[in-house]
Known about the structure:
The chain is mainly beta. The chain is 10% helix and 43% strand.
Amino acid sequence: MNKGLDFVVILLIWGGLMLFLLQSLPADAHKSDNRNFSASIISLFKNQVKPKEIKGIISVFDKKGDFKKAAVFFSRKIDIYDIKISPTLPAGSQGGPKLIFAGSDYGLFVSRDNGFNWKSFSDNEKKIGADAKIYKILFGPSDYGHLSVFQGNKGIIYQSRDNFSSLTKILEFSDVAINDFDITEKNLYAGLSDQTLVVYSLKNQSFKILSAFNSPISRLKAETDNLIYLTLKSGGFFISRDSGLSFEKMKFLENYRGADRIYDFAVDPVRNKPPQAAVASLIYAATEYGLIRSRDFGKNWQVFDSLPKDNQKIFKVIGRNDEILAVNYDKIYKSRDAGLSWRILYPEIEDSRMISALAVGEDIIIVGSRK
């Protein structure tokens, strides 16, 4: 074959490839500016890379009492931000395992077999893909699913009625990430990276800024519209009793070095329901000082001195009734007697990674990790 014919063949191959890429892009991608077009091409190439089986990212504590490495099928290692178990069965399913979702720095992942195998997931319209960061997954009132997404330099919250197969955008902010959010029967509260707290009315479909702080909100929990807890990245535990219009900082933690540096907190969903809630509000906090708890809405706190090692950082916590899970780097402290005694669990994750997400089912604990 002569050089001229070689050139024609190569030109035809590249032309066919570009036509395939254009047809594979969203309908409006080629109409946007060159930067968006290039990003779409790169994103498409990323998604076309053949996934490989990666272990050591997610681990599952099963019925037998052992941790097993789960398999993540993707082209690269991912960091896990959140894991949630769907309260509803997959569409058309009469039984079997519920869907489990994991938010990561490369989009949303799903497991259909109790967390042992994970694959990349996107909605029917491909609104979210591997170029999206999924910071939080939340199943709120009426079992609706919600996602906090950062994509295209925008912070977005999507709502779904069908396990994220279809998505409805309900909030969007340019150049701002939504660090955390929570939902009551009437409102959605969102803590933004620009140091503000906003409320979105589910009924009126409108939002407004409630409060501004001197640091971004790191964690947020709306027990009711009249009782909101939050923490800041710079430190401190705050409570609002007027629907987020004003917040009181709990001063007690300032007396102990590192105690007001809160990485995570959990409000006991069992103990804080009537009639128990009339007596106390039980809150657990994972701090630089250690694992602490409050029984009086955050006014006073006590440290768990029963942990195997005193004064160590705790990064995540789950507390429900008398069962507590507390994370220290690559291990989990588990108690079934309200912290009187502890068992140490060692998830099967890579040595260079730390635990970043926990989800608890009826018979399993699912652990996600990050670098």
